[in-house]
Amino acid sequence: MVSTNTSTTTAEKVLRIGIFGMFLGHGIFAFGVKDTWIKYLTSVGFSEASAITIMPIIGVMDIIIAFCVLLAPIRIVLLAATIWTFSTALVRPISGEPWLDFVERWANWAAPLALLLLQGIPSRFREWFTIRSYYANEDVKWGRTHNAPSSNISSNIDTITTDSINSRKPKYNSKYHSKSSRRSKAI
To answer: Is 139 left (phi over 0), alpha (psi -120 to 50) or beta?
Structure first.
């Protein structure tokens, strides 16, 4: 049986390669101003001239995202990739194509979302700019590592339970409870 860490690492690597290919291919098409994509931009308010102008910029952005996900999948980039691919899939039925064209492209936005979920949704704003390392509970922040919160749920629950029990215990205060006063009460 394969360990969970190995399976997760393999899944993350496969997702990174798949997302890279998708964004690289779409980026090259957009940079080359693919004629059939102009209607997607005009359907959401761009003129044809501005669609032709903005498409190479979108292509460069897609290529940057492709390499970023492959080499350093920063969580904020994965979130942006998820939102962008969901929007580009949704624009197809908005532009008059069948709604099944949106359904057909679910994998385009589900892949970066899955990688983001495997990396872990950050609990703090600054964690959006980190990469979860593939090594034992560490986050990588621009080339430096720091310990991430433990992902072991049972140890977290034990800690919470122990802390909450200890905080409810009455505290012994020697000022009010001397040994002699306790002996007299016991007799």
So the answer is: beta
Per-residue confidence (pLDDT) for residue 110, from 0 to 100: 97
Give the contacts of 55 (CB within 8 A, at least 6 positions apart).
30, 31, 33, 34, 37, 38, 41
CA distances from 77 to 44, 112, 114, 116, 138 (A): 24, 9, 13, 9, 19
């979302």: which residue's tokens?
A: 113
The pair of structure tokens assigned to 163 is 């802390």
**What's residue 24's pLDDT?**
98
What pTM was computed for the model? 0.68
Q: What SS3 state is found at 98?
A: coil
Measured in degrees and rounded to the nearest 5, phi and psi for residue 170 equal -70, 140
pLDDT tens profile 80-138: 999 999 999 999 999 999 999 999 999 999 999 999 999 999 989 999 999 875 444 45
Q: Is the dihedral of CA 86, 92, 95, 97 positive or negative?
A: negative
